[in-house]
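User: Teach me something about this protein's shape.
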Amino acid sequence: MAKRTTTGLIQELDLGNIRPSDVAQSTLRLLGYPYSLENYPMFVDILNSPYTRRLMRSGRQVSKTITLAADILTEGTTHPHLPMIYANASSKQTSAFYNI
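Assistant: First, the predicted structure itself:
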């Protein structure tokens, strides 16, 4: 069975124009505030991508890690029992990721 993305699940359930980025922004909170992509339009396409593998290449401090966390949470909440692994080159970066 092929892995379904959140985009594929939304299409399969015929939920209309709901996108994974909409799910993330309506359900997630960051530091007590609603998660927003208003200042990060370049990451909307990342969250809404139909592909199971994606590559982000950008400068420092532009919210790549937060976007990755939002993607993992959105995928995890829309796909029960979905195995996910977050791997990083350093334990410091991994620790920072889990403390978001």
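Now, about its shape. The chain is about 40% helix and 5% strand. The beta strands are 29-30, 33-34. If you'd like, I can walk through any region in more detail.
User: That's plenty for now, thanks!
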